[in-house]
Amino acid sequence: MKAIIIGGGIVGLSSALYLHRSGWEVTVIDRNDLNDNCSYGNAGYVCPSHFVPLATPGIIKQGFKWMWNSKSPFYVQPRLSKSLIDWGLLFMKSATPEKVKAAAIPLRDIGLLSQQAYVSWQSIPGIEMAYEHKGLMEYFQTPEKEEHAHHFCADARKLGLEAELLSYEQVQALEPQTRLNIKGALWFKCDAHVYPNKVMSSLRQHLLANGVFIRPNEEVTGFDKKAGTISHVRTTKGVYEADKIVLAAGSWSRELAAQLDTRLPMVGGRGYSVTLEDSPNKLNHPAVLMEGRVALTPMDGNKIRFGGTMEITSLNGFRPCSADGLPYIGRSSRYKNLLFATGHAMVGMSLGAGTGQLISELVNEEKPSMDLRPFDPERFN
Ligand SMILES: Cc1cc2nc3c(=O)[nH]c(=O)nc-3n(C[C@H](O)[C@H](O)[C@H](O)COP(=O)(O)OP(=O)(O)OC[C@H]3O[C@@H](n4cnc5c(N)ncnc54)[C@H](O)[C@@H]3O)c2cc1C
After folding, report:
1. pLDDT, mean of residues 71-99
2. Cβ–ligand 1 contact at 288 (below 6 Å)
3. Residue 175 maps to a domain
4. 40: Cβ below 6 Å to ligand 1?
5. Which CA distances in Å does 176 have to 146, 188, 254, 267?
6. How much is the pTM?
7. What separation in Å is there between the alpha carbon of 366 and the centre of ligand 1?
8. Which residue puts its alpha carbon closest to atom 2 of ligand 1?
9. Which of 95, 104, 162, 163 could form a disulfide with 55 if both were Cys (CB 3.0 to 4.6 A apart)?
């Protein structure tokens, strides 16, 4: 049985891993060389603590102040685009306290499932991740963010996640090599991190060595459809037939989905990261600066990666942001051999391994490890 995966980011490669291990002949097609997509440049958090989706009442309030300033952490590039307006309206509609509350359990569950999946990858020969389970600190400097941290800590504990509030002195004792200008931190002990470049390149090598076909520099351009199935996938270099097709094309998935009669509201959320290979500044634990919205991850020995900003932009964006902050994972109701695996926004690395596992369960007609209804790819149709 043959499966085609469109997109070789973490979601596509992870789906390839699980499908191949369950006996499928797998081909991954990517329009780039697979050496530098969003899944390489991220902060590497594997974070069940991220149970709050992107669409919240807070981001709407703060976003209106920030969105016109290109130097702010949440900037919306002004442009008249039907897809941006469509996404923006749905985003605002999704940003209610009720919807944020309803998203917490599914996001926690897929976060924990994915973390377990990464733990299991550690014993797969050839896959290297620099996986470390040290938690994630959220540093705060102001009384407002301190209060927010108190609430967030209580919410996390209610969900059964290990979280602790630390005073300035406690954080400084854990980070003796760096002088910190903070009031304290919320320490999500439940979180882990990886070095994304290592995960991506070793996973790709592992797949190639085990007989998965990887087609770089080949763009999927269209589909032939017949009687409720996709009969062919058309690319810039050829035509493919497959029993199952997984659309995992990151922030470009919306256009491909539209060709398949499916509305997948999505925008690209561009971010930036810089990695110091041999950092003179030492941190023991990954951290987010709450006021500055900057992520700092010490990774793979002596490296530190700085990442940040969310620039809602045109197609050339990178984080695949769904309209409600929840991923699109599931089967198509229109084409019986099509599945969607995209829209993971700020947590695609974290949820990548678990998404691959879930896609394999769906393809193989097994009972999924969790309730997938909140991630229904057709929820906005
Ligand atoms: C600065 C920054 C920090 C981040 N930090 C974190 C973090 O700490 N933890 C976390 O979980 N997430 C983080 N993220 C988000 C995370 O990187 C993304 O959610 C994740 O990489 C998305 O993976 P993906 O596989 O869906 O998409 P991608 O990695 O974008 O892969 C999609 C692939 O599809 C290919 N493609 C597109 N169209 C076609 C086509 N027509 N034909 C063939 N191929 C096509 C593309 O070339 C691309 O290679 C961060 C992102 C940024 C920008």
Report:
1. 81
2. no
3. no
4. no
5. 22, 19, 46, 41
6. 0.95
7. 27
8. 42
9. 95
